[in-house]
Amino acid sequence: MNTNNQRPITRRRKDPNAPKRNLSAYFFYVREQRTNVQRENPELKISEISRLIGQGWKNLSETEKGPYNSLAKQDKIRYEKEMEEYQKTKEMK
After folding, report:
1. C-alpha 37: how far from its chain's center?
2. Which among 28, 7, 19 has a CA at the least distance from the CA of 81?
3. Is residue 17 classed exposed, middle or buried when 0-12, 13-18 and 19+ CB atoms within 10 A define those classes?
4. Domain 25-92 sits in CATH 1.10.30.10
5. Alpha helices, DSSP H only, in the chain?
6. pLDDT at 29
């Protein structure tokens, strides 16, 4: 809530029918690596696992990041198509 007797800030509610956002290359990498890191280090906390995965991402070369970048591009195309369809249905209402 704002000070000085201003009205509270309200957020727009998300439409549950809206398409899910596209994932970045990093999130595709995280999705793939998380179970392996957890299996190898069961004693680590979630924040420590995230830190290890982040360091691994940082150490990858651009060619090693290539498959994840292509997955991200495909997911972006998926999102744009779904969003276009969603906008059409939204306009029809």
Report:
1. 19
2. 19
3. exposed
4. yes
5. 25-40, 46-59, 62-92
6. 98
Q: Which two tokens stand for residue 56?
A: 């691994």
Please count the other Cβ atoms lying within 10 Å of the Cβ belonging to residue 78: 14
pLDDT (average), residues 26-49: 96
Q: What pLDDT was estimated at residue 43?
A: 96
* Rounded distance between C-alpha atoms, residue 86 and residue 93, angstroms: 11
Q: CA-CA distance, 66 to 72, in Å (whole number)?
A: 10
| Boundaries of every domain in the chain | 25-92
pLDDT above 70 for 2? no
Whether 49 and 37 have beta carbons less than 8 Å apart is answered as yes
What average pLDDT is seen over the chain?
Answer: 91
Burial 19-50 (b: 16+ CB within 10 A, else e): beebbebbebbbeeeeeebeeeeeeeeeeebe
